[in-house]
Amino acid sequence: MSQPKTFGELKQTHWGTPALQHRTVKDEMRANLISRLESGEPLFPGIVGFEDSVIPQVVNGILSKHNLILLGLRGQAKSRILRALTGLLDEEIPVVDGCEINDNPFAPRCRFCRSRLKQQGDETPVAFLSRSDRYVEKLATPDVTIADMIGDIDPIRAARSGLNLSDELTIHYGLLPRSNRGIFAINELPDLAGKIQVGLFNILQEGDIQIKGYPIRLLLDLVMVFTAKPDDYTARGKIVTPLKDRIGSEIRTHYPATLEQGIAITRQEAWTQRNGKARLFIPPYIQEIVEGVAFHAREDKKVDKRSGVSQRLPISVLENVVSNAERRAILSKESSIVPRVCDIFAALPSMTGKLELEYEGELKGAEAVAQELVRSSVKQIFGRRLAGVDLQQIVDWFDLGGSLKLSETASATETLEQLGAIQGLIEKAAALGVKKKDDPPLLASACEFILEGLHATQKISRSEERGYFAPEKKRQEPYFDEKSGRARKTFN
Fold first, then answer.
1. Residues pairing with 403 in the sheet
2. Cα 335 from chain centre
3. Is the pLDDT of residue 312 over 50?
4. How far apart (Å, rounded) are the C-alpha atoms in residues 134 and 183?
5. Is the pTM of this model over 0.70?
6. Which of 86-90, 297-301, 304-308 has the lowest mean pLDDT?
7. Which domain holds residue 70?
8. Are the C-beta atoms of residues 237 and 231 closer than 8 Å to each other?
9. Is residue 80 one of the residues assigned to a domain?
10. What CA–CA distance (Å, rounded) separates 386 from 274?
11. What's the total number of domains in the chain?
12. Which of 58, 160, 230, 274 has the highest CB neighbour count under 10 A?
């Protein structure tokens, strides 16, 4: 069935029913949300870890027909949630064709559309606006002006049309009026200048705008949603209190609560499916170590808690880890790409830029802090994966003078030849679900994880020059105590 082209044709469709003629955006989103709740459809596909916390609060806000603000640190899917709200809009709505503010043909707001409908009546052309075109997002910056947000008088338009500057038809509309009958999102709301925040008062409370002091009453129909950092959204922060009072629901986001949730998000967002011929397999312990880096960073006192550690960190790290393993596979002409722990250390450049450090961290340096985080994550996952497994035979091999230096670019076959010299190491890979007959890249990855875990738990040592080796034993040497006149033993 073809879409109506004129206002008269539109009246003959379901859009002509009284229930739809004057339905607001908030009523529309509420109705579609109720329909989804009743059918059991997913509300926000792709949003992981918020099922029992954030999403119920968003649902309550929409059912209450509130404007919303999401408070959270960077990398907590705030913008993604806002963009997902478009899924609660109708697939398309009718508008007066050519209208700058997407006017409803049944209830026109702007002077242009009112005049046009009065002159042309049922012959007024209509068009349809898709849900994706009904979402407008603006990043708040200090240089944003009232003209950008609300609009301004256009003297050139007035001159060309022979109109007075006070005529409504001379207005050049800003982002807010152009979002009419849709969703308008402002990221980092407190970064807006105070006078711009004041300009949002009437829109939130009364739904109207004023431009250049002219008493133009333009009732806007839209949903306004915002994001902000918690520290900025306080009485002591950069938010104007009356504006804060006019926002209906304040919803706090958070980072993944469990390692499993974080891994699910990272796996969903990271670009790991490369187009090469080699088969990619990421061992579970590698994914856990990568995700664990972010969890440890959020708790580390050397990392700024107010800035947070974005979920983009493990996503970027995993992509870099896969790339380093891919590079090794290409150079070695291997048919399998299997990341190792050494690939995580090679991915440090994807960590350091995402860590905001405290003074103590700045003294140590971002790279040193990142290395500590990787080691802490390896230690935790090693303890979880190999708890109760007897690895003393491997430790003894090093205590007897053995040492081993591995290269991150060496092929799996070459690496296994070196690892085979360590008694019991390859057999212990079975504790990770890896057997001798498995792919060499997978077996090499499991064995290296065991060695790195022993290093993280201080059973063996590792350095860039020597590789893995036994920790140096502390020597006992006597020294002379002048007070007692006796030799006393101590540790150097």
1. 469
2. 33
3. yes
4. 6
5. yes
6. 304-308
7. 7-252
8. yes
9. yes
10. 31
11. 2
12. 58
Does some domain include residue 474? no
Q: Give the C-alpha separation, 487 to 492, whole Å.
A: 15
480 pLDDT more than 50: no
CATH code at position 13:
3.40.50.300
Q: Which residues contact 329 (CB under 8 A, 6 or more apart)?
A: 276, 278, 335, 336, 337, 441
Check residue 357 and report its DSSP letter. Answer: B
Rg (CA), the chain: 31
Q: In this predicted structure, what is the pLDDT of residue 195?
A: 80
Q: Give me 200's structure tokens.
A: 């949002």
Q: Which two tokens stand for residue 441?
A: 């890249």
d(CA 300, CA 317): 18
Q: Are 26 and 73 members of one domain?
A: yes
Same domain, 194 and 60: yes
**216: Cα separation from own chain's centroid:** 40
The answer to whether the CB of 477 falls within 8 A of the CB of 492 is yes
Q: How far apart are the first and last CA of the chain?
A: 89
Beta-ladder partners of 183? 135, 223
Cα 9 to Cα 80, 116, 129, 192, distances in angstroms: 37, 16, 17, 44
Q: Is the pLDDT of residue 170 over 80?
A: no
Same domain, 50 and 91: yes
Q: How far apart are CA 340 and CA 471, in angstroms?
A: 23
